[in-house]
Amino acid sequence: MAILDPETVFNQIQVALAQDDINRAIQILESLRGPDQADVFNELDEDDKIALLPKLDPSTSADILEDLEDEEAADLMRSISSDVAIRILDEMEPDEAADLLGDIDRQQAETILAGLENPEEVRPLLLHPDDSAGGLMTSEFLALRRRMTAAEALQAIRRWQPESENVQYLFVIDGQDSLVGVVSLRQLIVAAPHSILADVMNPDVITVQAGADQEECAQIMARYDLTALPVVNGNRRLIGVITIDDVIDVIEEETTEDIQRFGGAQPLDAPYLSTRISTVFRKRVGWLMLLLVTGSLTGTVMRWFEDELSAVVALSFFIPLLVGTGGNAGSQTTSTIIRALAVGEIDLGDALHSIWHELRVGLLLGLTMAVIAYLRAVTWGSGQGLALAVSLAIFTIVVWANGLGAFLPILAARLKIDPTTVSGPVMSTLVDATGLFIYFMIAKLILGLW
Amino acid sequence: MAILDPETVFNQIQVALAQDDINRAIQILESLRGPDQADVFNELDEDDKIALLPKLDPSTSADILEDLEDEEAADLMRSISSDVAIRILDEMEPDEAADLLGDIDRQQAETILAGLENPEEVRPLLLHPDDSAGGLMTSEFLALRRRMTAAEALQAIRRWQPESENVQYLFVIDGQDSLVGVVSLRQLIVAAPHSILADVMNPDVITVQAGADQEECAQIMARYDLTALPVVNGNRRLIGVITIDDVIDVIEEETTEDIQRFGGAQPLDAPYLSTRISTVFRKRVGWLMLLLVTGSLTGTVMRWFEDELSAVVALSFFIPLLVGTGGNAGSQTTSTIIRALAVGEIDLGDALHSIWHELRVGLLLGLTMAVIAYLRAVTWGSGQGLALAVSLAIFTIVVWANGLGAFLPILAARLKIDPTTVSGPVMSTLVDATGLFIYFMIAKLILGLW
Predict the structure, then answer these.
(1) What angle do CA A62, A122, B225 make, to 5 degrees?
(2) ipTM attached to this prediction
(3) Are A65 and A88 in contact (CB under 8 A)?
(4) Could you read off the pLDDT of A168-222 as tens digits, one per residue?
């Protein structure tokens, strides 16, 4: 099947709905793949969604709800009857069902839970925070006894009917239900039918506790190339499994948060267009106010030099250029260093090395900028003295911005603060005040103003 | 096995090496997991690395070289004999072997390739660019005939000895070797032994061409929750498979590039500390120079208002605060919009909606900033007129920065330019010049300067 143009499909469904041919609309929708169904479905009017959902095959509805944004899915759940909701949730993977139930009100969730085929698979998942290993895991896994033979294990797999197709690893437990090994489907197939699991399995299983942060889980899975990560409790009893598809979503989510922090805002926690104006405002105003107040420091620095500014107004023409270049050089450095820290290319032991690296880059960049700034000043008809002061200042500011841009994220990491908090805007603001101070001091010296 | 503290292990190995007990060093190293082996190994002196590599089990050396950075691995390859290199590469997955051979000189690569057990698995992979589907795929896959029975397929799997354990899907081909379906190990196990693959398989296979961009492959796999993505040629012949572990590395790499672009630099393409100063310089100087030149526009704007600045020096005190706040508000917006575009939360059809969203956020933020700026100006002892001008200017600048911050990335996306290029530094520079113009015009009006 080719990947269809969603626009075309959407139009076909709209036509069918306009003709009240709901069966045709369903037929078109069900011919698509899960994520595409969700995309097309999401574009429909609210009324059409509520009308279609109970009429679709429950497993189709389950796929759609899984792929919709949390908020949107919860809204739909509130609009359909509990009977329909139960039929749909029975088709969902338990972790997705739990996420959805966690987003609707408690009473409706309890009613639905009571009607499910396997409520015991879903209920324990409701206890864990969304961003922990426990919130990410599914309770749908197959645990086999270590004394089982490979043939018996294959038989158990035949009897097992999981909702998810992505099953590649099975877990091996001992008499106390403690996790003691992992075995892949391929190992089971290749093994002699009578060999026992304890001899076939890999006893070196990497596990996490239910409370582990989701970002830590993602890092472990990426590092060790795992497609399934078992979650255990304090007694090493297997309570769930995190699968790679959920982790890719986590990586995407964490990247979004990092990039929003880079821009000097708190993460939105929800898709952009479905976030209310007031929420976006709240997430941004704090930083903006703080940066405005600290930024007014720069104004204070300038007030110290009021006499010089009155005497040589041309001094002020270079202010935006100097603080802009300083801020840009600083942003280049922080973004590189923060990312290198995040992916583990540098660690705290490399601190001095990294700062030295940046200072040398800063020397080269500073020299280049100094030459350009000198030429720019001269072509503006500024005097030799002012041109010299500007070019010396820009050199010093760039070196300083590079050094600070390397030092601050590393300091933040050492103090266990998220290094992204000292990114772009914070750096610019810091470099502004100090940079202007450097500029005026150099100008005073060179122009002999004092 | 617990995750050992790498520092401790490293020290133990250093002690063993100092006592010339190379076997002990090897024993300690081989007791670790692959990625941990690579980390510890990487900390050793160059001489120790070259001494250890030929003495390790070739499969251990293969794991280590796969997990080292490309540059570092290539350096080591150049220092060991071709015989040793051949033994190691024979243990590698073909895609990793090809990546490594692509990084060393042609003649050595040819010698090694000639000595490999299965050169035909590696050679075709050398033809594709590193960042394409062809460069990412492995040629190690199992293609089964559609007329085979499930039992025969399982038999074929037993005979097959891939280097990688991560095998979950098998591909089904017709008489012309065209890809016609995919079947999971679990489906084969569950199927009746005599059922033929054509009836068991899923005929809806998502594929990519060898030339597809690696980012596109990552997006497809993330969207459709795939753990393996088949690569086909123009005749739909299967030529390779991309596995999820490689894609996670791609996502990490692409995020690094985006974040570096966000900081206003070209991506480094290599780990930070192993990038030469001159390279880092080259990647940053272009943007910095461009931004300095466009930033000097701001100076030009100020020169137009030279008379006003001479008359009221206090006007200049607010320049850093105004341009800083405008730049920060712009960065907050661009980072949100760029990310929303990247993950598909908004598309070009949402352009007007997004800009309108931002303008309303900008109104709220602008009002708040105006109040704070007014108070700040008054406490600095500026006159009522100046305080009013500053607060009106900051309001206008914030709304303008938000609008521009939403408009530019969307415009870039529409023009098929990477939206990250209009991130932080570019926005700041743009907002600086226009913001100051707005400020001076308002000040002129209110202070009746003209």
Answers:
(1) 45
(2) 0.76
(3) yes
(4) 889 999 988 899 999 998 899 889 999 999 999 999 899 999 999 888 898 889 8
Q: Report residue B366 as tokens.
A: 């602008």
**pTM of the predicted protein model:** 0.77
Contact at CB, B332 and A288, closer than 8 angstroms: yes
Which residue, A43, A35, B124, is CA-closest to A25?
A43
- For A149, A173, A180, A194, A196, the CA distances from A155, given in Å and listed in that order, are 10, 17, 21, 13, 14
Chain B residues with CB under 8 Å of A332 CB are 263-265, 284, 287-288, 425
Range A207-211, long-range pairs (CB < 8 A, 24+ positions):
A207/A179, A207/A231, A207/A232, A207/A236, A208/A133, A208/A232, A208/A242, A209/A133, A209/A233, A209/A234, A210/A128, A210/A132, A210/A133, A210/A134, A210/A137, A210/A239, A210/A240, A211/A128, A211/A132, A211/A133, A211/A134
Q: How far is B95 from chain A (nearest CA, A)?
A: 15
Single out the residue of B268, B267, B305, B264 nearest to residue B430, CA to CA.
B264
User: Token pair of B376, please?
Assistant: 């700040």
Of A398, A388, A397, A377, residue with least CA distance to A445 = A388
Strands A228-232 vs A208-209: parallel, antiparallel or unpaired: parallel
Query: Contact at 8 Å (CB) between A236 and A178?
Result: yes
CB neighbour class for B294 (10 Å; exposed up to 12, middle 13-18, buried from 19): middle
- Cα A334 to chain centroid, rounded: 19
- Which one, of A401, A69, A409, A404, lies nearest residue A261 by Cα? A409
Angle at alpha carbon of residue B307, lines to B431 and A439, rounded to 5° = 60
The whole-angstrom separation of Cα B328 and Cα A429 is 9
